[in-house]
């Protein structure tokens, strides 16, 4: 019996890595710390940008910046186990987390994470 | 012959006041000065609000505030001669312009402007 309300990560799709209890604890901590840092960055950038406002257009530019950052952050920080290697791959590529942060994850996940980070780096360089 | 691209204010609707050249000059100056003051207010409020940001929620509150202010200002400052008595009525009600600013407008317009300002004040008090 399957329930439509069952969370996705309880019934991993074929080929998706399963996450052990200790891996989940690591993932949660890394995810939360990265999100916290990114939000701190937005707070800092908002204060700096606001302080430099000189004309009305600067205000609407700040509004646009905030809207884009909110959408980007909402999209990027997707804590579903089916998405986590992508999330960490992107954060690794952006330099928002380091490989050391991921110590304790199994090789199958580290491989996926590094692979996406490398792909994104090459994609940008191209 | 009417053209779909003819500006509305060149062909005033029935019962709409016409604006003399000197009235148009007064209207433009009052309108521009009020808009400039309101945009200065937004700039000031944005800087103050940004300086008081303490947590991420404050950032998204600022974004929301800016979006609402932008929509409100775009809607309020409608420089069509068919709308100007409404625009000035609202600005008078909000205390953003004074009756003295409107010196030089004909009585038909002053009456409409005061009437709307009074209506809005009573509407709010109700």
Short key terms for the protein model shown above:
elongated, 0% strand, 126 residues, homodimer, mainly alpha
Structure explained in plain terms:
2 copies of one chain form a homodimer. Chain A is mainly alpha-helical and 126 residues long. Chain A is built from 4 helices and no strands. Chain A has helices at residues 21-51, 56-76, 84-93, 107-125. In chain A, α1 (21-51) runs antiparallel to α2. The longest helix of chain A has 31 residues, at 21-51. The interface between A and B is medium-sized, with 19 and 19 residues.
Question: Can you give me a brief rundown of this structure?
Answer:
The structure is a homodimer of 126-residue chains. Chain A has 126 residues and is mostly helical. Chain A is built from 4 helices and no strands.
